[in-house]
Amino acid sequence: MSSSTVPSTSLAPRARRRPAGGVLGVDTHRDAHVAAVLSLMGTVFVTGEFPATAAGYRDLLKWARNSGAVRRAGVEGTGSYGASLSRYLLAQGIDVFDVNRMDRADRRRRGKSDPLDAQNAARAVLSGRARARAKAGDGPVQIARMYKLTKASAVKARTQAINQLKSVLVTADPALREELAGLGNAELFRTCARFAGVSSREEDGEESVLHAAREVFHLVKQLQPGPRS
To answer: Which of 10, 16, 18, 50 could form a disulfide with 56 if both were Cys (CB 3.0 to 4.6 A apart)?
Structure first.
């Protein structure tokens, strides 16, 4: 009687299968970002919080990829708090889409939740609602945008300084106030420039007004916009 070998029925332990893929969603803030990874069917895999630093960005992407291949990301505020993260993700081959913040009424109804906002960012990509691709932020358009923002900030600060100057002059001696009344900005600045040569007045109160006017005038002068190119 011949013996035969019986095949073994024991099975080797199966390796843990990773999800086929997912979409990253990020709710951005100044100091930290909250992220969520969703399956292509919308199931939430994981959520987490990471510091808004270079190391934090690396950890966030490594963490997200542990849930499977991540090729798309929805990021809130790609032009502000999420700008640096967006540039990093783009450099790593991730398609980044700009996501609008959740509707305020919807937020009030559901309650403020950073993880929910991160999930909503991913769902916006999955549904196709988020279509605007984030910019790399290193081209001439971005340079022009930064210049425009800086100039707008300087113009706003200059306007505030001019209003402050006029408020200071309201408290001046009536004779001085009448002298400056009705002057346009250019003429007012020239007049205030002459105050720089005034060292003292008989009334201490008027001297303090002139001193304040000189200080504000110098601030306005520093904020004077340069010549147009």
So the answer is: 50
Identity at 33, one-letter amino acid code: H
The whole-number pLDDT of residue 8 equals: 39
Segments making up each domain of the chain, as ranges: 22-127, 140-222
The secondary structure of the chain, three-state, reads: CCCCCCCCCCCCCCCCCCCCCEEEEEECCCCEEEEEEEECCCCEEEEEEEECCHHHHHHHHHHHHCCCCEEEEEEECCCCCCHHHHHHHHHCCCEEEEECCCCHHHHHHHCCCHHHHHHHHHHHHHHCCCCCECCCCCCHHHHHHHHHHHHHHHHHHHHHHHHHHHHHHHCCCHHHHHHHCCCCHHHHHHHHHHHHHCCCCCCHHHHHHHHHHHHHHHHHHHCCCCCCC
Q: Domain 22-127 belongs to what architecture?
A: 2-Layer Sandwich (3.30)
| pLDDT level of residue 112 (50, 70, 90 thresholds) | low
Q: Which residue has tokens 């609008």?
A: 100
Average pLDDT, the chain: 75
pTM more than 0.85 = no
The confidence score (pLDDT) of residue 5 equals 42
